[in-house]
Amino acid sequence: MKRGWIWLAVVAVIVMMVVGQFSGNYNKLVAADQGVKQRWAQVDNQLQRRNDLIGNLVETVKGTAFQEQQVFGDIANARAQMAGAKTPAERTAAAQAMDQALGGGALSRLLVVVENYPQLKSNEAFMQLMDE
């Protein structure tokens, strides 16, 4: 009879060890699954943040590029008017248009550089968009 109880105790201990091992492995798998879900949530958050930033920056760059394009167009038109002026009255009108386009005046050499390279200001915004 003692032998039967000993075998039963040994079998019970072995069963408990096997069940404990499966339980531990299951808990590790659940913890690993939760870790994976957390990391994917972080990836989703970063992708959403990036999407929001890109949308905001694109709108900012569009606004800046449109504004710059309008300013450069006004300056180019005023310079063309100045170059085409024949009479003193036309020159005076062209000079006033140039002053208005420049918002008070600037160096003509600077105007030539800015007109030749209109991407100077817009590029900064586009580069920021690319960096983000």
TrEMBL record:
State the annotated membrane topology for this chain: Single-pass membrane protein
User: Can you cite an annotated GO cellular component?
Assistant: membrane
Source superkingdom: Bacteria
The UniProt keyword set, sorted, is: Membrane, Transmembrane, Transmembrane helix
SUPFAM superfamilies the UniProt entry points to: LemA-like
The record's listing under InterPro entries reads:
LemA-like_dom_sf, MamQ_LemA
User: One Pfam family name from the record?
Assistant: LemA
Asked if the keyword Flavoprotein belongs to this entry, the reply reads no
Enumerate the subcellular locations listed in this protein's record, separating them with semicolons. Membrane
Its chief place of residence is membrane
Signal sequence segment = none
UniProt xrefs under PANTHER family: MEMBRANE PROTEIN, PROTEIN LEMA
Q: Which family does it belong to?
A: Belongs to the LemA family.
Name of this chain's protein? LemA family protein
* Organism from which the protein derives: Eiseniibacteriota bacterium
